[in-house]
Amino acid sequence: MEALLEILGELHPEIDFETHKSLIDDKILDSFDIITIIAEINDEYDVAIPAHEITPENFNSASALYELIERLKDED
User: Fold this and answer.
1) Where are the domains of the chain?
2) Fewer CB under 10 Å: which end of the chain, C or N?
3) How do residues 13-32 score in pLDDT, each as one tens digit?
C-alpha cells in the first residue's frame, strides 16, 4: 500500500489519499491521472489492470485501488 500511496502522492501531493474516498466523484483524478496510475501500478506491482476494471468504484480511493491490485495479483 505504501508504494501505491507514493504513486498517488506524486500526482497530487495536496490530497490525503489515506482518507479521501471520492477521488473520481470529486474530480480529483482525471483520465490522464488514471492512465498514469495504471502504468505505475503495472511497473510497481507487475499487475495489468484490464479495461473492464477501470471503473469509478475501483479508483475512488486508495484502499479500493489497493484491493483491486491484490485481487488481480491473486488471479495470476
Assistant:
1) 2-75
2) C
3) 999 999 999 999 999 999 99
